[in-house]
Design brief:
The protein is of the alpha+beta class and about 220 residues long. The chain has a domain of about 140 residues: 60s Ribosomal Protein L30, Chain: A (2-Layer Sandwich), CATH 3.30.1330.60. About 40% of the residues lie in helices and about 10% in strands. The chain has 7 helices and 4 strands, in the order αααααβαβαββ. The protein has a 4-stranded mixed beta sheet with strand order 1-4-2-3. α3 packs across α6. The protein is globular, with a radius of gyration of 29 Å.
């Protein structure tokens, strides 16, 4: 067999097998979007805390507005001592500025955390929602604030009973978030207010009244 015939036979028998054995690599073999899609709920929670006026969620918005004065009166935050007098600045002027800030609404969102009847144990659904909240609170823009969880109930039952139940439920939420974010006890507080601040006062027994509210106190 001549050399040219040998090469022709080799090409006809061996090369097709090699070509078949090789894998074809195309752009479709690569993922150009390796980053996971953002958690929409966590982003919405974060955005509502950063700018209440832009919050479009019926669940997260529309709740009671709490100021620094309010949370101080609830006994969960201590008012910081007045700053020392500043040369050239009237004391009265400093006081007006402090009082104005103390009366301004603090960042807040409502969370519809569902509990079984007469229970303060978190359900799997509640834990999932609180894990989402923890993701939102991990945002650098929300760091450095004290977390105040305020428990609310509907208007059914006695005031004393509902206040205690709302406190226990707020405690459950606070413990879960504190454990998830590994916060120190001084960074988080819980308090119950029963049905003192109904979200839907027209229907006191409405489910939306049974909620836990988060209030952020910057720099507390």
């Amino acid at each position: 067999m001549t050399k040219s015939l040998y090469l022709a036979a080799f090409a006809a028998t061996v090369l097709p097998g090699l070509a078949f054995a090789q894998s074809t690599v195309t752009l479709d073999s690569f993922s150009l979007d390796d980053d996971p899609k953002p958690d929409v709920a966590a982003s919405e929670m974060r955005d509502c805390l950063l700018d209440a006026s832009a919050c479009a969620s019926n669940e997260f918005s529309g709740g009671t507005k709490f100021s620094l004065d309010d949370v101080v009166n609830l006994g969960v935050v201590e008012r910081k001592p007045k700053p020392p007098a500043v040369a050239g600045v009237p004391v009265a002027a400093i006081g007006v500025t402090d009082r104005t800030k103390a009366a301004e609404p603090l960042p807040t969102i409502d969370l519809e955390v569902l509990f079984a009847y007469d229970s303060d144990q978190l359900s799997p659904q509640a834990m999932a929602k609180l894990s989402t909240l923890a993701s939102a609170l991990a945002d650098p823009q929300l760091q450095g604030s004290k977390l105040i969880f305020i428990g609310h109930t509907d208007g059914v039952g006695s005031a004393v009973y509902n206040r205690e139940l709302s406190r226990r439920r707020a405690d459950s939420v606070a413990r879960y978030v504190r454990s998830t974010l590994r916060l120190s006890p001084s960074q988080i507080e819980a308090v119950g207010v029963g049905f003192d601040y109904l979200k839907n006062s027209r229907f006191p027994d409405a489910a939306e009244n049974r909620r836990v509210q988060l209030v952020l106190v910057p720099g507390a």
